Amino acid sequence: MIDALKKKEISVEEAIESGDLPEKVLHMFACDCIERAIQRRERQGVVIHERTREALHIKRKWLEGRVDNQVYLSVWVNAWSIASDNWRPHRDHQDAVLPERPKDALYEGIAWALTRQGQNAANVIGFTDEVDRDWQRARFIWLLECYQWAGERMTFLIPEGRIPEPEDLRVDAFDDERTGEDE
Fold it and tell me: Which domain holds residue 159?
């Protein structure tokens, strides 16, 4: 599958939908994509709910086995609450339906990224910016290659720096910062 992704014979979405990928890779990829989308939005001056970063941090700890399912579940429920507050119709104190708030797909993507099903989590691509598609493909391939080498140990080897990240694949590496171009 890695070769097919490198040759662009299949898309990342097709690889995810195949169902043949390790859950840990799918979860890590989802966290990376959403974290990058959050950073991109913040660079554009958008204020992101402060609990979203904590939720992603807890999910990464869960992947490493450092947080139990109960803590993880509470974070997931909280993320869905934040997501729904940012796009569902809301009611005033007299229970009258007010106009729907502008939908912010990023929050829904955050909630999906936090799910316990890897395939659902990795479908966050649809909630992120089109400009990141090349980065997502390269990051996904890198994660698959890390998994081939380290297996599930990758969930703690990458954060600890034992598997070095290529500079251009870091979550916080944006092309416009290296080239000086505006987005």
Answer: 2-179
